[in-house]
């Protein structure tokens, strides 16, 4: 049973496809599942259109790409750990986590990043669906690391290639060191539980390459401005200036070669976390937004801890 409805994600983009007409019954066909996974490897991102909006459908789609894994941050909200391991909820609550970006106040804004950069092990992908939408904003942007590498200025690409980036679990807006918009300030911090603070304090710094080569041969520029602390071995004004230049170039190129998805009630989407960067536009702080995301296992083997993990600090000690 071959796929009947496969289209480019957006005209002129070098990544992504749209697939329509899938049902849970069709996904029982192994050949069709393999075809979907092959399209994902080739294109890096899929938007599934007009699909059943249920936990069961999200799990069925996710299983095309590998087993689920638990999110590494214990304080992240789970949907139903017993029935759906690895499914998390991403909730933007009213009046919480507000930042001013280029003169506009929004909640749950996120810069260009890849997931789990603060960990030694990444995840292959995530499948995302919108459960509660907002009237304006809440748009998810996607940017291809292969296209980024090819579009980067040659001199800057040569200076960052071979470098490794240091990351920590630092989620607050005032902790963003690199790639800030021209006008940027934190208005209201994100909620942060004692459990989250305890885990963040116990985690060593994670190291990931700025550029890596995929098994299929393409080079991928893979730098997250979110949670980045500097260049390994060069946490100096000169090294920081280089990383800032890279992050700002990513911002600049994203203006013309990224895709920004406005969520509909019948959409789900998957992106390759080892290849793509993504961002979130933020939304009106008076509105709430809720997303469900599965986490697909599968690492690239290039991340590591800077030092051996420490024994976890107790939440009571951090309170």
UniProtKB/TrEMBL annotation:
<comment type="similarity">
    <text>Belongs to the TfdA dioxygenase family.</text>
</comment>
<dbReference type="GO" id="GO:0016706">
    <property type="term" value="F:2-oxoglutarate-dependent dioxygenase activity"/>
</dbReference>
<feature type="domain" description="TauD/TfdA-like">
    <location>
        <begin position="6"/>
        <end position="295"/>
    </location>
</feature>
<keyword id="KW-0223">Dioxygenase</keyword>
<dbReference type="InterPro" id="IPR051323">
    <property type="entry name" value="AtsK-like"/>
</dbReference>
<dbReference type="InterPro" id="IPR042098">
    <property type="entry name" value="TauD-like_sf"/>
</dbReference>
<dbReference type="GO" id="GO:0005737">
    <property type="term" value="C:cytoplasm"/>
</dbReference>
<dbReference type="InterPro" id="IPR003819">
    <property type="entry name" value="TauD/TfdA-like"/>
</dbReference>
<dbReference type="Pfam" id="PF02668">
    <property type="entry name" value="TauD"/>
</dbReference>
<keyword id="KW-0479">Metal-binding</keyword>
<protein>
    <recommendedName>
        <fullName>TauD/TfdA-like domain-containing protein</fullName>
    </recommendedName>
</protein>
<dbReference type="GO" id="GO:0046872">
    <property type="term" value="F:metal ion binding"/>
</dbReference>
<keyword id="KW-0408">Iron</keyword>
<keyword id="KW-0560">Oxidoreductase</keyword>
């Amino acid at each position: 049973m071959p796929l009947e409805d496969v289209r480019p994600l957006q005209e002129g983009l070098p990544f992504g496809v749209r697939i329509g007409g899938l049902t849970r019954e069709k996904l029982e066909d192994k050949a069709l599942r393999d075809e979907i996974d092959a399209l994902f490897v080739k294109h890096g991102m899929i938007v599934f259109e007009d699909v059943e909006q249920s936990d069961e459908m999200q799990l069925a789609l996710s299983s095309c790409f590998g087993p689920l894994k638990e999110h590494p941050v214990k304080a992240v909200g789970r949907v139903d750990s017993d029935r759906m391991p690895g499914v998390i909820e991403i909730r933007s609550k009213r009046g919480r986590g507000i930042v001013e970006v280029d003169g506009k106040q929004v909640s749950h804004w996120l810069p260009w990043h890849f997931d789990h950069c603060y960990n030694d092990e990444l995840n292959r992908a995530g499948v995302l669906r919108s459960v509660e939408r907002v009237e304006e904003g809440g748009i998810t942007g996607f940017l291809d690391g292969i296209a980024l590498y090819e579009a980067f200025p040659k001199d800057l690409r040569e200076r960052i290639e071979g470098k490794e980036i240091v990351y920590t679990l630092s989620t607050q807006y005032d902790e963003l060191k690199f790639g800030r918009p021209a006008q940027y300030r934190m208005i209201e911090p994100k909620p942060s539980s004692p459990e989250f603070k305890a885990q963040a304090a116990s985690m060593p710094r994670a190291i990931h390459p700025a550029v890596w080569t995929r098994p299929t041969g393409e080079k991928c520029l893979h730098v997250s401005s979110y949670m980045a602390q500097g260049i390994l071995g060069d946490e100096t004004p000169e090294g920081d200036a280089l990383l800032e230049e890279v992050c700002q170039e990513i911002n600049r190129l994203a203006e013309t070669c990224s895709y920004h998805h406005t969520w509909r009630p019948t959409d789900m989407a998957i992106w390759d976390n080892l290849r793509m960067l993504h961002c979130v536009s933020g939304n009106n702080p008076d509105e709430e937004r809720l997303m469900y995301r599965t986490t697909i296992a599968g690492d690239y083997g290039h991340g590591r801890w800077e030092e051996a993990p420490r024994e976890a600090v107790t939440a009571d000690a951090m309170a």
